[in-house]
Amino acid sequence: AQFLRANGFTNAHNLAGGAHAGLQKIGEARESFRAAIEAAPHYQQAIGNLAKLEARLGNLDEAAELYASILEQHPKSGAAMLALAGIDIRRNEIDDALRWLEKARADSTHRHVAALRLVQIYILENRNDKALSVARELTLRKPGNLEYLLMLGRARLANRQLDKAVETFKDLALRAANG
C-alpha cells in the first residue's frame, strides 16, 4: 500500500505537469514535474517530460542536462538519445546529432526512428553514400515497408541512381495503391 501511495503521488505530479503544460501554465508545469522528480529521482517519465518542456521553450542546455541524467540512469535509453539528437540538430551540431542517432539505432525500440532520421540528415548533409547504406539496411529488414522504400528512393536520388530511384518509387506507388 505504501508503494502505491508513493507511486500515485509521483504519477499525480507528473500528470498534473502535463496538464499544466497543455494549459500553457509553464511555471505550474515545472513545479509539478520537479515535485515528481524530487519524490522519485529516477522517475524517467517525469524527467523526460520536464526536458521536453524546456526544449519546447528553447532552454536547450537545461533540456540536454535532463536527458543526460536519464542516460546516466539508463545508458541505453533510445528515447533520450533521440531527444539529444534533436537538440543538437536545433543547435546545428549535426555531427553530434548523427552520433546520437547512430547510438539510438542500437536500441530496438527506437531503431526505426533513428534510422529514418539518419537517412534524412545524411541526405541533407550530402553524405549520400551513408544515406544509401542505412536505407538499404532498412529495406532489407522490412522489404515492403513504405517509409523505408521512400527513404531508399530518396537516397538513390541523392546518389544519382536515377533508374533505381524510379524503380523504387514505382514499387512504392504500387504497394501504397494495394494497401
What does this structure look like?
The protein has 179 residues and is mainly alpha-helical. The chain is 80% helix and 0% strand. The protein has 10 helices and no strands. The protein has helices spanning 2-22, 26-39, 44-56, 60-73, 78-90, 94-104, 111-124, 128-141, 146-158, 162-177. Helix 9 (146-158) packs antiparallel against helix 10. It starts with a helix and ends with a helix.
Unreliable residue stretches: 1-5
Mean pLDDT: 92
The largest sheet, given as strand count, sense and whether it forms a barrel, is:
none
* Structural class determined from secondary elements: mainly alpha
Radius of gyration: 20 Å
What is the number of E strands? Answer: 0
